[in-house]
């Protein structure tokens, strides 16, 4: 188990694994079905991000000190001191595999955004990025990268390296995520004074929509199911809401009664994991049975 705050978690695309990482550099792979610990890993990196390869066999993690790769089944080499590149000396807020597994995007020190072409190891840095945090996401076809730019979201064409769309949400975006149908989801620090659950941009209709009742605290984290039909949002105060993105109805509501540092939603949308507080506790809900599993 973790003894320090867990700042990153991710389910594998095949639903077999959950990997968690804490600020002290400990990573744990869990059996997502039983929530039994499978393997422990130790790294000098203070973990802030975990992204699974689309084949589910490995994951990339990053944080203060750079990033490295691990194999949740314990095979392969153990995590080392990080990749030997110039980003290592900075704080990596996010690593993210593209859906086609050909690129690995990164955010360094809130403002430097780029991606590595894995076949050639070419590093490309995007222009005009600032105040990004951990708000980046690939489009389903891996042709575009959306990122926060203050209160706007910029959508970059990765072939031309040009910004092809600027979405003005009118509020500071905390997290982003694409659904398979191309809708771009976001949660905000606040939306024009009202703390909505989430919003999304529909590229077909070219419109924005905000969903959810006024909340006591703004959401900070979000997680989407693989098919995009469920979205989980939560704030640091411990509230968690799960919505059906088709009907926009709230399906579940939880209160952990402790600070939340990260959440993860299983690929089928039926298991929700969240972490918070300094004791490193991870709580897992079975959404199909509406009860706490562990």
Could you explain the architecture of this structure?
With 294 residues, the chain is mainly beta. Helix content is 0%, strand content 49%. The chain has no helices and 27 strands. The protein has strands at 6-11, 17-22, 26-31, 37-42, 46-52, 59-64, 66-70, 92-97, 103-108, 112-117, 122-125, 136-138, 144-149, 152-157, 162-168, 173-178, 184-188, 198-202, 207-211, 221-224, 230-234, 239-244, 250-255, 262-265, 271-275, 282-286, 291-292. The strands form seven sheets. A four-stranded antiparallel beta sheet has the order 1-2-3-4, with no helix packed on it. A four-stranded antiparallel beta sheet has the order 8-9-10-11, with no helix packed on it.
Quick summary:
By secondary structure, the chain is mainly beta. 0% of the residues lie in helices and 49% in strands.
Spatial arrangement of strands, main beta sheet: 1-2-3-4
Mean pLDDT: 86
Strand count, sense and barrel status of the largest sheet are: 4 strands, antiparallel
In terms of DSSP E residues, the strand content is: over 45%
Number of separate strands? 27
Distance between the termini: 12 Å
Percent of residues in helices: under 10%
């Amino acid at each position: 188990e973790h003894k320090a705050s867990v700042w990153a978690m991710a389910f594998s695309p095949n639903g077999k694994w959950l990997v968690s990482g804490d600020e002290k550099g400990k990573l744990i792979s869990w059996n997502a079905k039983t929530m039994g610990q499978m393997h422990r890993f130790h790294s000098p990196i203070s973990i802030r991000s975990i992204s699974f390869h689309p084949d589910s066999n490995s994951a990339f993690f990053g944080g203060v000190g750079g990033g490295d790769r691990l194999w949740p089944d314990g095979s392969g080499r153990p995590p080392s001191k990080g990749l030997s590149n110039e980003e290592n000396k900075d704080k990596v807020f996010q690593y993210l595999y593209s859906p086609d597994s050909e690129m690995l995007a990164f955010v360094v020190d809130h403002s430097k955004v780029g991606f590595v072409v894995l076949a050639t190891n070419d590093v490309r840095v995007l222009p005009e990025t600032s105040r990004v945090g951990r708000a980046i996401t690939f489009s389903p076809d891996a042709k575009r990268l959306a990122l926060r730019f203050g209160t706007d979201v910029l959508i970059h064409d990765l072939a031309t390296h040009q910004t092809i769309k600027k979405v003005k949400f009118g509020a500071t975006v905390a997290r982003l995520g694409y659904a398979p149908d191309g809708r771009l989801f976001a949660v905000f620090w606040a939306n024009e004074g009202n703390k909505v659950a989430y919003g999304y941009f529909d590229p077909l209709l070219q419109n924005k929509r905000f969903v959810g009742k006024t909340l006591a605290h703004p959401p900070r984290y979000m997680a989407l199911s693989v098919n995009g039909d469920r979205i989980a949002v939560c704030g640091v105060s411990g509230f968690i809401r799960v919505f059906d993105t088709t009907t926009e109805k709230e399906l579940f509501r939880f209160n952990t009664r402790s600070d939340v540092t990260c959440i993860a939603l299983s690929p089928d949308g039926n298991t929700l994991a969240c972490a918070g507080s300094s004791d490193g506790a991870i709580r897992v809900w079975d959404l199909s049975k509406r009860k706490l599993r562990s």
